[in-house]
Amino acid sequence: MKADNQNIRNTGIIIGLSAVIVSVDHHEPRVFIVRGAEHALSVGIVPSGEEGDALPFGPFDPETHPTLEQGLRSWVKNQTPVAPGYVEQLYTFGNRGRYAGQKQGEPRVVSIGYLALTHQEKIRTSEKEFWGNWYNYFPWEDWRRGKPATIENAIEPELARWSNSGASKEEKSRRRARANLCFGLEGMVWDDEKVLERYELLYEARLVYEAIRDRGIKSDSAPVPGRSMLYDHRRILATAMGRLRGKLKYRPVVFELMPEEFTLLYLQKTVEAISGHAMHKQNFRRLVESSGMVEEISGKKSAVAGGRPAAVFRFRRDAVLERPAPEAK
Q1: Is residue 245 assigned to a domain?
Q2: Is 159 among the domain residues?
Q3: How far apart are the C-alpha atoms of 25 and 258, rounded to whole Å?
Q4: pLDDT tens track for 18-70
């Protein structure tokens, strides 16, 4: 193991482990954030001094971590008060220049991203460690109350300017088609899973802060609203959001975010929080009840303010959901 560790260092590559820990609280999707850059210093990367939001992260050490996932869980335990249950490998991020301000000759960091789901419990947080609403980072992804104003007010006009600045007629047409496909413009359909594609388009068009920062441009803001993150962590978060939205349609992963007992309305609001779309109440209820995923707890009701007590359900762990998610209204 020691020889393997030395070999990794000799290649100028460090294997990093990044965790996107997701929970839902008060019908809002949360991701656990580590504020500041201190957690990355152990990999030998000295950040530019910028303090900002980041995902829990740390290097894989083959001498002490039996597996990649155990290494990831070790860093999560070290940096957060969260103990996620469900964890799956997300993607490997190895682009050159991922760390803005990294000096020539410093090790290249290849990060293996993980998606972790947990039911949020009351844990102690601080200004340095907290649950952040993921729509603060991606305000254009929340369609629960209709089309987000930031798309019409900021994204559409900025993408139009970017498209028209293409060097040729073909380039202008290509850019316009890409913008329409990603953001559902000019009659195209909005695809809730294209979170990463939308972010990468905004990055290429220099409309998000990371694109400005990574090019060394001095600015405190970007043309499109949205809270930025250190390194390429907003890209990793976008990847996790798209993955989770897709899995909702064919796997019962939503129950990893739920308490042991819940009402169908609570379940619906949780699905809506992740998908970013409102759903038809009766259609959702019929689909869930016919799927065999849940069972009603006999004789138990949940008090609802201003309404009749609601039936209480629990997830059947042996059930497998193979039907698509209910369509948005």
Answers
A1: no
A2: yes
A3: 10
A4: 999 999 999 999 999 998 655 554 444 444 455 689 999 888 888 999 999 99
Cβ(47)–Cβ(60) under 8 Å?
Answer: no
Write down which residue in 178, 210, 225 finishes a domain.
225
**Integer Cα distance of 265 and 105 in angstroms:** 54
* Closest among 87, 97, 98 to 236, alpha carbons compared: 98
User: Is 231 part of a structural domain of the chain?
Assistant: no
Asked whether 54 and 232 are in contact (CB, 8 A), the reply is no
How many Cβ atoms from other residues are within 10 Å of residue 5's Cβ?
14
Q: 100-122 pLDDT, tens per residue?
A: 555 566 677 788 999 999 987 67
The DSSP output letter for 82 is: -
In angstroms, what is the C-alpha Rg of the chain? 21
What CATH number does the domain containing 131 carry? 3.90.79.10
Convert the pLDDT of each residue in 255-303 to its tens digit: 999 999 999 999 999 999 999 999 999 999 999 988 889 999 987 888 7
Tell how strand 57-59 and strand 310-315 pair up. unpaired
Measure CA 232 to chain center.
12
Asked, for residue 242, whether it belongs to a domain, the answer is no
Rounded distance between C-alpha atoms, residue 234 and residue 20, angstroms: 10
Q: What is the mean pLDDT of residues 88-111?
A: 72
**Burial profile 13-52: b = 16 or more Cβ within 10 angstroms, e = fewer:** ebbbbbbbbbbbbeebbbbbbbbbbebbeebebebeeeeb
Helix, strand, coil % in the chain, rounded to nearest 5? 40, 20, 40
The torsion of the CA quartet 228, 272, 261, 122, rounded to 10 degrees, works out to 20
